[in-house]
Each structure stands twice: as structure tokens, then as C-alpha cells.
Amino acid sequence: MSRRIIIDPITRIEGHLRIEVEVDANNKVTDAWSSATLWRGIEVILKGRDPRDAGLITQRICGVCTYSHYEASTLAVENAIGVVPPKNARLVRNLIKGSQFLHDKIVHFYHLHGLDWVDIVSALSANPKKAEDMARSFSDSPYNCSVSHYEEVQKRLTTFVKSGRLGPFAHAYWGNKSYKFPQEANLIIASHYLDALEVQRTAAQMMAIFGGKNPHPQTLVVGGVTCVMDALDAHRLGEYLYRLKTVKKFIETAYLPDVLLAARYYKDEGAAGIGAGVKNYLAYGGFPLDDDWHKTLLPRGAVLGANLNKVYDIDEEKIKEQVTHSWYEGSTAHPYEGETKPDYTGFDAQGYLKGDEKYSWVKAPRYDDIPMEVGPLARMLVGYAQGDEKIKPLVEHVLNKAQITAQALFSTLGRTASRCIEAKLVADHIEGWINELVTNIKGGDQRTWTRCDIPRSAEGRGMTEVPRGALGHWIRIENNVIANYQAVVPSTWNASPRDDKGQRGPYEESLIGIKMANIDEPLEIIRTIHSFDPCLACAVHIINPRSNEIKKFRVQ
Ligand code: NFE
Ligand code: MG
Question: How many CB atoms lie within 10 A of CB 47?
Fold first, then answer.
């Protein structure tokens, strides 16, 4: 007999996500539906506005990846005008985005995803000496590692538990059989969970140095950046560099070893491909490395059907959004022609999603009619398959250390490990961008902006990579103002519902075949969904022009 399970809302994400699954008599998932249940957004209110304002408005799509939309929007307008910003602007943008990547990944692994892997209650009874030995076997100089520190962490956690006010640790599935770490590993990662609260602040400060503030930085303009004085100020560069060192050390001596621990104890799940999903991967490329902006640190290309022997070039015409199963009117369209007209049809009589009809506020982007996963796993796989000289050795290094094969990357574990590999990749390159900036300025080039005027009519797109994956903004300008604007966001790709052909989206497909240890504790489902780092605020970014209130929720 099959049974329907609803998880709504999924917590420790941004935005509102509902997952429904059908499980068989063996607690195995046989079908799944992903639904964004709250409607919000931006695309509609951009119409009629000055294209130069689009960046500041679109970054309000999200409170997490604010810079992502700011950048994509600025790139879209620059593409429409045909302007390429100067070298200093390219480097400063890489520095702002680099800090965003580091911040985002640390927060995700520890604070949003960590408790899907780590049993905090088990950490309380770990032996601190054994934990120290274990940490030293995974890193030459493990972060904040000593018996006395681990004892202190246990004391803090115990006080917390005894107080009964568990905060972020409340309502969890402690003791569930799907937690695989020994007590000592739980203690190590729990201690880094607390350390990461401090380190993420340092990473956030990095963004503010060139962004002006964080979240919602202020220093990008169409044609370049405005933070001229900061780029010329050795003190500001030093402030940034100092923080980078702290964050990089944490990535190398806490985050990476902790992911290796996960690979050790959750190895079987990786090998079995648990949580793999659609196995098609898409990346647009990000972090431009040359002054033509063509060569990028994060790769561009597509891998299809988990075949690492071939990487496809991207044909942008093949990117289309479908709405058969989304609460919108209209038909399949390329983003230049895309519309956002709501058509809410609600739930069925039993209160379930109407899985055969419309059931989500997220549209269904498809590439050549194929559902694609985007994000760190997609980027690392495309880079690995391309034989990228920066990415391939790093992926191989981690695979060797973890004693897993490249095939194990097609899994929830692989998705989580890829995010860490990418954090290391970006952290390794930031200092080079600072040096390039200093050398360029010392050489006499102080330009940070290229003059440009808004044409009467034009169209352009900004395609880049942001923490959760490939991000594209498409703009059409008529009479010097925005005539149409469409954002196709990473979480739109990953959280998408079924399409015209009934093909499931990446979240949905990743859940098929997952077996739960305890039907009343959907830990395995949450772990896999969290591995994508969902942001439904980004994924559903349209707005009702008459009223923002669609539904009221009372959370008990
Ligand atoms: Ni709201 Fe975002 C990122 C974008 S999500 S977090 O990263 O764009 O899909
Ligand atoms: Mg959109």
C-alpha cells in the first residue's frame, strides 16, 4: 500500500517549499512533487523603469544571494548596450562575488545542511580525546581542535539542551538510524558549527569592503563599479586580505576535513547514487578571468545523462520555460518572450497537490526540453569532464582523499562535497585577483567604469554562476525603458515541477528510490533536498501588482 507524506514547510532554506512524496510498503519513495507555495516577485514591477535601476531592484529578489541578481542584471544591461567594463571593475566584481560564495557555502554546510548529517545529541557523549585524534587524522592542523575545546563545546551544548530552549536544535530527528557518524565525528562538526557562526560573519564583512554593505551591496553600476577609492586604498585591500586568510583557513582545516568525514561515513550512499536526480547538468560560466570576459573560473557547458566523456556547448536558444504544471497562463517561451501571468488553481479536495495539473509557483525551465540540475555539482562535473586544469586536479584530490570514485559524485553526498570543492577553488583564486588589481592600478590604470548610454531599443542577457547555480536575466528595452524582464534562477531549474512531457524536476527526481529508516521522520528526504541549497525566494520572483498578500499562514 502506498502512503503520501507531506513536508511543508521545508525549514532551513530561504522561501517556502512543500515536498510531497509517495512511499511504498518498504518506506521507499516511488513518486515526488516539489511545490513553491508562496507567490512574490519582481519581474512585473520592472516594466517601464530605467534599465540602470534594474540591478538595485532585482537584488531584492532574495535576501541571501542579493549580489547574484545585482550582477546578473547589470550584465544583462551591459550586454544590451554592448559595453565591457574595465579590468579593475572585473576584478572588483570577482572579489565581491568571491566573498559571497565563501559566505554562502559555509553557512549552507554548517547551519542549513549540517544537522541533516550530524546528530547533536550524540555529540554530547563523545570522548573528546578520541575526537581530537579523529580530527587529526583528517587534517594536519585541524581547526580549533583540542580536548579542552571539545569539552567546552560539550558543556555549551549540554547547557543549551538542559535549558529546554533548543533554538536551532529543536524538533530534529536525533537518534534516527540514518545518522551515520560516530559520536566523535558528531562532536567535531558540531564544534565547527559554532565556529562557523563567527567565520561566516568575517566572510560577510569581506563583501561589504567592496560592496559598500552586506546584504544588498551598492557598488555595481552599468559599465563598471563605483568603489574607486576602496580599490585604490591599500588599507581596504589589507582588510579584505586579512579576512580572506581567516575564511580560507576555516575552509581548509574545518569544512574540507568535515566533508571528508561525511564521505567516509556516508560512503555507501554515495556509491549507491542516493539522491542523484536527473543526471543532466548545466553551467553558464562565472568569474571572468580575462579582459574579454570569455575565459571563466567556473566553467560553461552541459553534461547529459551522467556521461562524463562529453561536454556540450550551450545554445542559449534552447533555454525555455514551461508552465503546464505551474500556476501561470501561457505557453513555453524563451526568456526574451516570457510572461508572468498567474493562474492559481489550488489543491485537490484532500488537500494534496494536484500532481497531474498545476501545482507550483515555480516555472519549469528546460534546456532543449531536458530537465537540468544547476549548482556546484553541475559546475564541478562540467569542469571535471572538460579536463579543466584548475577544477579536475582539485576534484581528483578530494576523491582520492575520500577514497571514492567520480561516479559517487552523482549523489546527495556528491552534491554536498562539490560545494566544498568549489569553496576551496574560489578561495584559492581570490588572492590572485587582489594581486592583479594592485598591479594594474600601480601600472597606472585607475579606470573602474566605462561610459555608456541606454539605447532606445535593445535586448540583452546576463548569464553567470551564483552559489546555487546558473543564473540568467533577460531584458528587452524599448523607448529607453524596460519593456520585458525575465529571470531564470538556479532554484527555478532545481525546484521545478514536471514539464509538458511529464518529466520531473531535479528535486523531484532526486527523491525517487530513497528509503526512509523511519516513516515519521523524513530525514533522508530533507537531507537530499537541502543538498541543493533551495532558495524559493529566488525561484518565485514575481509579484501581484494589486496586493502582496496571497495567503495568510499561522505557524504554531
Ligand atoms: Ni536566493 Fe540565488 C543563489 C540566485 S537561488 S539564493 O545562489 O539567483 O536560486
Ligand atoms: Mg522568472
Answer: 13
